[in-house]
Amino acid sequence: MSSLTSQAFIDRLIRENFKFFTGVPCSLLSGLISYLEEVEEAKYIPSVREDAAVGLSAGAYLSGSLPVLLMQNSGLGYCLNAFTSLNLIYRIPVLVIMSWRGQGGKDAPEHIIMGDIDQKLLETAGIGYSVLKPENLDQVLEIAMRKINEEKVPYTLIAEKGLFDERH
Amino acid sequence: MKGTEAFQELLPLLGEVPVVHANGYICRESFSLKDREENFYMIGSMGLASSIGLGVALCQPNRKVVVLDGDGNVLMAMGTLAMIAAEAPKNLLHVVIDNEVYESTGRQRSISHAVPLEQVAKSAGYRQTIRVDKREEIKPAFEKLMNSEGPVFLLIKVVPCFDSKTGRVTHTPEEITERFMKTFKR
């Protein structure tokens, strides 16, 4: 699979006015986080757990910033109550970049079940998502921006292994 | 001191400061005593008032921000105390009304009788923490902390007295979002 450079992707998000980033790391997203630590136009706040990152993002949005949450799909369970009892009912959007561990059942055992059900969980909760590819970036960002700016709800971009360059 | 008295003491001190409220008793008591546009009433997502408040404080560094939290919420999100200490926003005052119970669900005991939350916050790295037990101590403590560099923490020990007939927040969640956001644009 061709990859998308972390730098190009983050620069693109910054151009879309996302300046507030938080999350809990995943090796698949390591390139994004190390670039965020270097870049001046955006800040990255490490969160201790994914639901705390949802709260932090919500505070950023309420006070005028556009937030991005980076996490592994293992964090989705922690986020579901926050998404359903905060973001969705209050109309507080966040762009979620979620790595897809356990894809196709080929990964460490702890990732297999979530790798199978993460998209179903998002669908059940009514949260839109796209599997991000280097060739569909423009298209999925357009959908994401519409969800965020018009419907004011979270939108998830799912990152498969190998999509981004890793730095670890 | 009863919980209601703590709210009565705090309300006149808030001015136009944005206040992020924890869910349950905190929201309901504060809303029924005095509704304010600068109040964000978090009706669900237990545990997240502190992280929401941290997000606001980091994005609005020139405004004081208050989190009005409860012991159950703080215990659920102790990791967020560490995040607040690590980011160290100078403009954040974290107030915790500690009644040692989950009040709005029927007064089941929490564990804050055994865990001094102000010491937890201090150990995490808050710049200053104050614990008060008496009503008359609230105003001087609050004013001192508002004029100090944050993050700072005020623990107010109260006895449970919530009247379960107290109403719920009547604004819709969307209305709460809209008017809270508006206060940052004026």
Task: Give the structure's gist in a few sentences.
The complex is a heterodimer of chains A (168) and B (186). Chain A has 168 residues and is of the alpha/beta class.
CATH superfamily membership of chain A = Thiamin diphosphate (ThDP)-binding fold, Pyr/PP domains
CATH class of chain B: Alpha Beta
What percentage of amino acids of chain B are in beta strands? 15-25%
CATH fold category name of chain B: Rossmann fold
How helix-rich are the residues of chain A, as a percent range?
40-55%
Number of domains of chain B: 1
CATH fold assignment of chain A:
Rossmann fold
Name the descriptors.
heterodimer; A: 168 residues; alpha/beta; Rossmann fold; B: 186 residues; 6-stranded parallel sheet; two-stranded antiparallel ribbon; 8 helices; 8 strands; 40% helix
SSE topology sketch:
The complex is a heterodimer of chains A (168) and B (186).
Chain A: H1 6-15, E1 18-23, H2 30-38, E2 43-46, H3 50-62, E3 66-72, H4 76-90, E4 95-99, H5 109-125, E5 128-131, H6 137-151, E6 155-159
Parallel strand pairs in A: 1-2, 1-3, 3-4, 4-6, 5-6
Helix pairs in contact in A: 1-2, 3-4
Chain B: H1 3-10, E1 19-21, H2 25-33, E2 39-41, H3 49-59, E3 65-70, H4 71-76, H5 78-87, E4 92-98, E5 101-102, E6 108-109, H6 117-124, E7 128-132, H7 135-146, E8 152-157, H8 173-182
Parallel strand pairs in B: 1-2, 1-3, 3-4, 4-8, 7-8
Antiparallel strand pairs in B: 5-6
Verbal overview:
- The complex is a heterodimer of chains A (168) and B (186).
- With 168 residues, chain A is of the alpha/beta class.
- Chain A has a single domain, classed as Rossmann fold.
- Chain A has six helices and six strands.
- Chain A has helices at residues 6-15, 30-38, 50-62, 76-90, 109-125, 137-151; strands at residues 18-23, 43-46, 66-72, 95-99, 128-131, 155-159.
- Chain A has a six-stranded parallel beta sheet with strand order 2-1-3-4-6-5, sandwiched between helices.
- In chain A, strand 3 (66-72), helix 4 (76-90) and strand 4 form a beta-alpha-beta unit.
- The mean pLDDT of chain A is 96.
- By secondary structure, chain B is of the alpha/beta class.
- The mean pLDDT of chain B is 96.
- In chain B, a hairpin with a 5-residue loop joins strand 5 (101-102) and strand 6.
- Chain B has one domain (3-182): Rossmann fold (3-Layer(aba) Sandwich), CATH 3.40.50.970.
- Chain B is built from eight helices and eight strands, in the order H-E-H-E-H-E-H-H-E-E-E-H-E-H-E-H.
- Chain B starts with a helix and ends with a helix.
- Helices cover 40% and strands 18% of the residues of chain B.
- A six-stranded parallel beta sheet of chain B has the order 2-1-3-4-8-7, with helices on both faces. A two-stranded antiparallel ribbon of chain B has the order 5-6.
- In chain B, helix 1 packs across helix 7 and helix 3 (49-59) runs parallel beside helix 5.
- At the A-B interface, strand 2, helix 3 and helix 4 of A face helix 3, helix 5 and helix 8 of B.
